[in-house]
């Protein structure tokens, strides 16, 4: 599959995953409602019988969704002119696991910037986003940045320096940039900024496929 639009890249073979021209609004809606459910679930303090009643509602919803299934997630589509996976766990608007990372911007140097708002469900240390999720955001951002630079590649090494706590409930800016290429190895750096302060920095080596 090829794509001629600027800022887009051809993905690796994606099995038989359906490729959509646009993300169905209802797919995004459902994911958004499930995110709210998860957030409500970690904050709720209702009585046990209400937890049981809520669990029954969730079971009913799960059964409804299982009435018709596909074998593969919706891997690839386009958002704001850039290739995305509908069900990617970081930026996929159709995946409730994804915060999601949104609003990709590409400046004149090719550097990328996106935003994400992670709720309490992503908490690791008290009041802070779990370090694994911090790394996930950065891993995805460097992958996106090298793809935007025309070198789609997979991460083989990701070094994250956690400078200070990354807060949840606060909009995060995730920046990344392609910094060079040596044979199949592609280099990139990135950082997360919250309230104007850098909370984590990453440097990555990726390998083209
Ligand atoms: C996922 C993409 C979707 C794209 C869609 C469209 C774009 C949309 C963007 C969205 C952005 C998504 C961002 C997701 C970001 C992930 O999550 S990527 C997934 C996590 N990473 C992986 O699963 C990769 C796992 N690793 C592998 O499968 C294999 O290492 C690879 C990548 C296939 C490479 O294996 P290989 O072809 O055998 O290559 P190999 O000879 O071992 O290494 C090649 C070179 O790299 C070097 N190298 C290998 N490992 C290391 C290392 N750890 N440290 C230093 N150097 C190393 C080698 O020394 C070698 O160097 P040279 O000898 O050429 O100088």
TrEMBL record:
Protein name per UniProt: Acyl-coenzyme A thioesterase THEM4
Record's bilayer topology term: Peripheral membrane protein
GO terms under biological process: fatty acid metabolic process
Recorded catalytic activity of this chain's protein: hexadecanoyl-CoA + H2O = hexadecanoate + CoA + H(+); octanoyl-CoA + H2O = octanoate + CoA + H(+); tetradecanoyl-CoA + H2O = tetradecanoate + CoA + H(+); decanoyl-CoA + H2O = decanoate + CoA + H(+)
Gene Ontology CC terms, in alphabetical order: cytoplasm; membrane
Keywords per UniProt: Apoptosis, Cell membrane, Cell projection, Cytoplasm, Fatty acid metabolism, Hydrolase, Lipid metabolism, Membrane, Transit peptide
Regions that span the bilayer: none
Domain of life: Bacteria
Species of origin: Saccharopolyspora terrae
Domain Thioesterase residues, every copy: 127-199
Primary location group: membrane
UniProt key word Cell division: no
InterPro entries listed in its UniProt record: HotDog_dom_sf, THEM4/THEM5_acyl-CoA_thioest, Thioestr_dom
Lineage, uppermost ranks: Bacteria, Bacillati, Actinomycetota, Actinomycetes, Pseudonocardiales
Keyword Endoplasmic reticulum: no
The family this protein is said to belong to: Belongs to the THEM4/THEM5 thioesterase family.
SUPFAM superfamilies given in the database record: Thioesterase/thiol ester dehydrase-isomerase
Subcellular location: Cell projection, Ruffle membrane; Cytoplasm; Membrane
